[in-house]
């Protein structure tokens, strides 16, 4: 598939400030703001740099990841300015498109915000169109932290049990998520359509209107096109159900990660317990009754549905590419991909995958993750990269993947 019009990735994108936390800067901020251990619960709203630090520390203590709206854009700029940071393109659709381009699959991006940074960093060979009428620049703050990062200040003594990433956003363009009037025409030639970005919206009225507009545009999709929806942490959690209720009957594949799974269930899940995961998958499938559900985690990735095994190559490609990004970030080569494919899978994940299949039969297909020991891993964009790998594999096939809809 060499025609960019056959893969349409939406619905928004952004500029990211990517940084990695360091103990010295965080400890100084804890001291300067007088933050104490009793405060380390997620603030209802992040309205200042102090709130931002409290939120970050709460996640770091449990090794969690998440995404939040921040009421103060200057707080994001101030915090980013305290660390060396990298300017990159972000958003699920954009990162997926960048990865697909590396794999030789061009795509077309629907954007809601364009500026010189976006135009410079978008991959060559693809296409984009935008609903924006003028350039806008609202960078997202992407905070990474390593496993073992220790923060000791005042009465705080925290050590991150896992590496992870956090996303903090104040972006009016993505909050509005305007749709281009050309979207329907573009969809009329698409074989693969990615839906993402509704999680950034903050107005219930606007959300309802956008969803109605999108359904109208989607009527132009050809028979046999695959629609993949990637979930995310909603800035307004109640909006998640509204999006699902409106779009579910038009979605072929619905993807989410372990954080989103556990948020829906309202309790933690032991990701290496076949019994707990089988129960969790059954419960979330009742909540999200799509033809194929995809759950991608740090230990494994699984498809659930009557056509689960038909996505085996897509699931494995997504897993491989996410692992490559974890090890090498954006700076990977074809040799890095080939070398990683030869690495062993995590033994506990291999055992888990076999046990899950024994419990759930052919309704699941599970791909174990890799055994990786990386000193400075990349934790941002792993899910987006998984999606890009998954869709790249789909885009190479001639199969009518909607036969099970």
UniProtKB/TrEMBL annotation:
Record keyword Kinase present: yes
Gene Ontology terms for molecular function: kinase activity; metal ion binding; phosphotransferase activity, alcohol group as acceptor
Keywords for this protein: Cytoplasm, Glycolysis, Kinase, Magnesium, Metal-binding, Transferase
Any GO BP annotation: glycolytic process
PROSITE patterns noted in UniProt: ADPK
UniProt keyword annotation of rRNA-binding present: no
Domain of life: Bacteria
Pfam families in alphabetical order: ADP_PFK_GK (PF04587)
Protein name: Uncharacterized protein
